[in-house]
Every structure is written in structure tokens, then in C-alpha cells.
Design a protein that fits this description.
Number of helices: 18
Radius of gyration: 21 Å
Largest sheet: none
Mean pLDDT: 83
Strand content: under 5%
Shape: globular
Helix content: over 70%
Structural class: mainly alpha
Length: about 450
């Protein structure tokens, strides 16, 4: 099958699967907000942020290496990848348990702000439980990576949906019996466990084995040092807001912020999912076979991402408060304004995919530079605007961090021959359609 057809089919599976995933996650969120109080979502959001940090701080690009490398179809090479992946899971667990202990000590000695999510008595226990799931994730089969490399995503999408639905069922049953934040943690752990088991028993391909090859491991680490740096910066840029606001806002306000973030993340993660599973693999193949075609394929891959992100930007800027009022009870009403403000960040999703090109062409430091710009802008704007305007200021600080990356993105694309101004205008045109649709919805309602 030709690359275009493979990428189109894979993109359809990736987009459809991710939409289904986000709908399940969103539906579970609606259910759980009726069973739990806002501060529990703040605690869970902060615990997941800590775990995300550990995963990102230990990221050496195993998936990217396996997809890009010419040896990615050899069992011996993939067995080394699997072995390193397991070791990484054990390291994450060890650091997670240590972090949980540190959080408990800080809270016990009143070294964190009273009333914040950091001071919640359940936080260290939730972090400890989530740390255990990292080991389970480390044992995921490399068949998931192989199918991604081949742009064959149908089975992996179904597998992820089954795991997510199972975790949701466990979460609801637990919350009905015991309405605590541990219901959310239990759902996350079951999700990870089911996905790992199914990756070994429900996907085609050869099994994984423990294998250690010092030369290959060093090659992985040499490539991964740039991925490692980019991952650290990426975490700080994408989740640094939660680390900051977990201490700057009350646990209740942080819980309300996390509700808006869930909706915003649904759109961001559509772009991320397609980029990581389809765009990266497709552009890697273009780079291996026909580098001169890179710009055309890049914009072809961007089209569905721009269509979703810019439309949602226009739609939510108008309908944010009404949507929150429709879906949640009055305790969460303040999330409406936060949602309107954070929707501004959607305009960066499409342009940000250019980072894949720099990674594939051996210039990963450029991706790290773009992430650094966002990080610096956010670290400056979030504390200042939060102190001046509270929850709304916090949202504007995060949005400014995203927008600050646009100028350097366009400069770098121009210098590398990637920029096509006419194609870049598609996004703003779609945003106007989203704005009109939102206005119509409000008028009809």
C-alpha cells in the first residue's frame, strides 16, 4: 500500500480512536464530578502531573527510535528496546515512591501552603499507587510500537479503548462504594494493567524477550539524550502550570481549573496523538525515501489537525461558559471563563507539528528551543497574572506561554523551507467558521 493511503487509513484510525477515547474520558469525568467533590480532581490532577514528570524525565525516545531506525523490524533490536523499557518502569516506580514520601514529609512539617492541593492528606498515597502502575506499563509489548511503525493502528486503537472502558467501570463502581480520590487512582491502574496484558495476548507479531546488547543500548542513549532534554522541557512547558498552580491556588480552585483543562486537553491530545502515531511515522518514511517531498507531506498531515484545533478554538471562545453550565453543576461554573481563555492555545497545535521535522532531520535541539520559549513565557506570566487576577489570570498566563512560540515557529519554518503562507491561512479561516457556529449555537439556545 502506498504511503499516502497508509497514512490516510492510519490517520482515520488515530483520529477516530482518539475521539472515542476523549469521549469516554469526558463521559467518565461528567459521571465522577457527580460522585466526587472538586478538590479530589485537584489532587488527582497534581498526582498525575507528578507521574507525567517522572515519565518525561526518563524519556529517551524508545518509541521514536524504534519507528525511525532501520533496525526497527528486527526482533533482536526490539528485544533490547523492551528490556530498556522495563528498566525504565522500575526506575519510575522507585522515584515515584520516593516522591510520595517527600510530599508526605513536607505536608507533615507544614512546608506547603495550607489548603492547597500539595497539603491534601491523600496526595502522597495517590502518587504511591500510581507509581506502581509505571512498572506495569514498562512491560507493554513492543508489538504496539511495531504496528505504529507500519501505520497499522486498528488493533491498537481497539485495545486502548477496551482498557479505558474497563478502567472507567472500576472507577465508577469504586466511587459509588467509597467516594474518595482513590477511585480515580484505581481506574488509572486498571487501565494500565489491561492495556499491558492485551498488548501481549491480542496483537499479532512475535513475543518479547529480555535481551541486553551494550552497543545497541549506547546507541539508544546517544540518540535519546536530545529526546531526554526535549522531554524535560516539554513536561515543564505542558505541565508546569499544574505544578505552579497546585501551590498558588486553593485545592478547590485548582480542581475547577483541572475541569477546564480536561476539555482543553481533549483537543490538544487529538493533535498530539495524530502527530506521534501518524505524522512522525509518515514524515520519517518521506525522509528515508524522498526528502524533497517533505513540505508537501507536512502540510498534508497538518490539514486534519488544523481543521479540528482551529474550529474548536472559534467554537469554545464563544460557548465556553454555556458548555460548562450545561455539563456541570454550579460548583464548577468558574471553569467556563477558564475554558474560554485556554481555548486560545489551540491556534498553536498545528504549527507546533514542525518539531517532528527537526527531530527526523537530526536537529532535535530546535524542538527543544521552541519548548524552552514556551516554558520561559509561562514561568514569567503565570505567577504574575495569578497574583493579580486569580484563576482567570492563571489561565491567561498559560495561554500566553503557548502564543509566545508562534514567532520562532514561523521563523524556523521559513529558514528550513517548510513555510507556505497560503496553507497557514487555512487555520484562521476554519476558526471563523467555528466562531460563527458558536454564535449560532448561543443564539438558538
Amino acid at each position: 500500500m502506498k504511503l499516502g493511503a497508509k497514512a490516510l487509513r492510519a490517520g482515520g484510525w488515530s483520529f477516530g480512536g482518539h475521539v472515542a477515547t476523549q469521549l469516554i474520558r469526558f463521559g467518565s469525568n461528567l459521571v465522577m464530578t457527580r460522585l466526587l467533590v472538586p478538590d479530589m480532581f485537584g489532587v488527582m490532577a497534581l498526582a498525575l502531573t507528578f507521574m507525567f514528570a517522572l515519565f518525561m524525565f526518563s524519556d529517551i525516545g524508545l518509541r521514536q527510535i524504534a519507528i525511525q531506525d532501520r533496525n526497527g523490524d528486527r526482533k533482536e533490536f526490539m528485544d533490547v528496546i523492551w528490556t530498556v523499557q522495563i528498566l525504565r518502569g522500575l526506575v519510575i516506580m522507585a522515584f515515584g515512591l520516593g516522591l510520595a514520601s517527600m510530599i508526605w514529609v513536607f505536608a507533615d512539617h507544614h512546608l506547603v501552603r495550607e489548603g492547597s492541593a500539595y497539603a491534601h492528606p491523600h496526595l502522597p498515597w495517590v502518587v504511591a499507587l500510581l507509581s506502581l502502575s509505571a512498572v506495569v506499563t514498562g512491560f507493554e509489548s513492543t508489538r504496539l510500537i511495531r504496528l505504529n511503525r507500519e501505520l497499522s493502528l486498528g488493533r491498537t486503537v481497539v485495545l486502548e479503548l477496551v482498557a479505558q472502558i474497563t478502567g472507567f467501570i472500576v472507577m465508577v463502581l469504586w466511587a459509588r462504594h467509597s467516594p474518595t480520590v482513590f477511585a480515580l487512582a484505581a481506574g488509572a491502574m486498571v487501565n494500565a494493567g489491561v492495556k499491558t496484558v492485551l498488548s501481549h495476548v491480542a496483537l499479532p507479531g512475535h513475543g518479547d524477550s529480555i535481551r541486553w546488547d551494550r552497543a545497541q543500548v549506547w546507541d539508544i542513549l546517544r540518540f535519546g539524550r536530545w529526546i531526554f532534554l526535549g522531554s524535560i522541557l516539554g513536561f515543564l512547558a505542558s505541565a508546569g502550570d499544574k505544578l505552579l498552580l497546585g501551590g498558588l491556588l486553593t485545592a478547590t480552585d485548582f480542581g475547577i481549573y483541572s475541569i477546564a483543562i480536561i476539555i482543553v486537553a481533549m483537543v490538544h491530545e487529538v493533535g498530539t496523538k495524530i502527530t506521534s502515531t501518524v505524522t512522525h511515522a509518515a514524515l520519517s518514511e518521506v525522509h528515508r525515501t524522498n526528502p524533497a517531498d517533505m513540505r508537501r507531506v507536512y502540510y498534508k498531515m497538518r490539514l486534519p489537525i488544523d481543521a479540528v484545533s482551529f474550529f474548536c478554538f472559534g467554537l469554545l471562545v464563544v460557548t465556553g461558559p454555556a458548555l460548562i453550565g450545561l455539563l456541570y453543576d454550579p460548583r464548577y461554573a468558574a471553569a467556563g471563563l477558564v475554558l474560554q481563555i485556554l481555548a486560545v492555545s489551540f491556534v498553536v497545535i498545528g504549527p507546533n507539528t514542525s518539531g517532528n521535522v527537526y527531530l527526523i532531520t537530526g536537529q532535535p535541539w530546535l524542538q527543544s528551543f521552541l519548548i524552552s520559549v514556551r516554558l520561559v513565557a509561562m514561568l514569567v506570566s503565570v505567577p504574575v497574572l495569578t497574583s493579580l487576577h486569580g484563576l482567570a489570570g492563571a489561565a491567561w498566563g498559560v495561554a500566553i506561554g503557548h502564543l509566545a512560540t508562534l514567532p520562532p515557529i514561523f521563523v524556523l519554518k521559513h529558514r528550513h523551507g517548510l513555510l507556505d503562507i497560503r496553507r497557514e491561512l487555512i487555520g484562521p479561516a476554519v476558526a471563523l467558521i467555528g466562531f460563527a457556529a458558536g454564535t449560532l449555537v448561543i443564539a438558538v439556545a
